[in-house]
Design a protein that fits this description.
By secondary structure, the protein is an alpha+beta fold. The relative contact order is 0.16. A hairpin with a 6-residue loop joins strand 12 (289-292) and strand 13 (299-302). The chain has two domains: 3-258, Hsp33 domain (3-Layer(bab) Sandwich), CATH 3.55.30; 264-316, Alpha-Beta Complex (CBS domain Like), CATH 3.90.1280.10. Residues 197-204 and 320-325 have low confidence and may be disordered. The strands form three sheets. A six-stranded mixed sheet has the order 7-6-3-4-5-11, with helices on one face. A five-stranded antiparallel sheet has the order 8-9-2-1-10, sandwiched between helices. The chain is elongated. It starts with a strand and ends in a 15-residue tail after the last helix. It contains eleven helices and 13 strands. It has helices spanning 23-34, 43-61, 108-112, 153-164, 203-208, 213-223, 227-232, 235-242, 264-274, 276-286, 304-310; strands at residues 3-9, 14-21, 67-74, 79-86, 91-98, 119-126, 136-141, 169-175, 180-187, 248-250, 257-258, 289-292, 299-302.
Length: 325
Amino acid sequence: MSELHKFLFDGLPVRGIIVRLTDAWTEVLQRRQLNTGTGPWAPEVAELMGQMAAAGALMQSNIKFNGALVLQIFGDGPVKVAVAEVQPDLSLRATAKVVGDVPAGARLPQMVNVGNQGRCAITLDPRDKFPGQQPYQGVVPLHGDRLEKLERLSEVLEHYMLQSEQLDTKLILAADEKVAAGLLIQRLPVEGEGNLAGSFVSSANEDAIGVNEDYNRIATLAASLTAQELLELDVDTVLRRLFWDEKVLRFAPQTPRFACSCSRDRVSSMIRSLGQREAEDIVAERGDIEVGCDFCGHQYRFDAVDAARLFTSPGDQPPVPRAVQ
């Protein structure tokens, strides 16, 4: 079963989170294969998507926010866009649009950032928006401050969190066909609470970047964790091996799971946004409108009558006949 554990280092300004996605991750892969005509991802894409799913769960659990966290990578490589979405209860889904072949052994620059146009966006979409409220979004390029291309998703997200939260962060990510896992170590804010939405920025946090000896020691220990160890070892073993000389305070574990928020109502709204004429043209050409969810593979079909009803107000529709008793 998938699991996420949050922990603190007693007496130190450092917190941590470790996640292992097992059934939740394999469900994402199985759903991908259900999508008509798409087939499984190349191993390099699957590894990136697993890392994104694990990173999304870590970042969502690290903030106090009633809404979806959407992690998105897009650029000019064969992976045009990759998305991982995690809800407050840690239900998650992920998908990617791939055009053409992904070179064997490709890393992030070869998949997304071929011409240095790649970007990483993190969106916080409130569950209960007030009128006119827009989701918060932060975007960073897939390169460092000196324009060098970043080879790993973990490096991109560390850079993002340093800019948005002004907090030192160490992130270890790994994924294969069975497990997607991640370890996040972060220095605690000097005062108040930093968060991804940037509602709090302390000048004291800026002064503390890179200089806290306790954080640096813990981060160095975390960096010694290999991808193979992260994928193969259970949570207890990882924490014991890395931090055997530290007093770690652990919280009750949480259980991430796969879940898709697609629905017939949401697809109906999408079709309405196309306009009645375009919807009628699609029905005339194909006989119906069929929309598949990229996340879970579910197919939604609207025949000519269904499509017409989308553009008819309830008062204009004929009454539904009652069943004969």
